[in-house]
Amino acid sequence: MEVENKEGVIILQGSAASKEELKKAEALVNEVKGVKSVKVEAKVTPEKKQ
């Protein structure tokens, strides 16, 4: 997952293994001082089990 900061607006891009992982990342970013908002552009891409 990639994280970009544009003047306090955080953009999460790339992929995550689950919806829960995306929600956790969003919640953690929201706790950071100075963050105005979080935009989630990342997609859920489940890991393939071997």
Briefly summarize what is shown.
By secondary structure, the protein is α/β, with parallel strands linked by helices. The protein is built from one helix and five strands.
Describe this structure in words.
The chain is an alpha/beta fold and 50 residues long. The protein contains 1 helix and 5 strands. It has one helix at 19-30, and strands at residues 2-6, 9-13, 15-16, 37-40, 43-44. It has a 3-stranded mixed β-sheet, covered by helices on one side. A hairpin with a 2-residue loop joins strand 1 (2-6) and strand 2 (9-13). The longest helix has 12 residues, at 19-30. It is elongated, with a radius of gyration of 12 Å.
Structural class comes to alpha/beta
The strand line-up of the biggest sheet is: 1-2-4
Q: Spell out the helices and strands N to C.
A: EEEHEE
Mean pLDDT over all positions: 92
Shape: elongated
The value of Rg in angstroms is 12 Å
Q: Number of DSSP helices? A: 1
Percent of residues in helices: 10-25%
Instruction: Compute the number of structural domains.
Output: 1
| N-to-C span | 22 Å
Described by strand count, sense and barrel closure, the largest sheet is: 3 strands, mixed
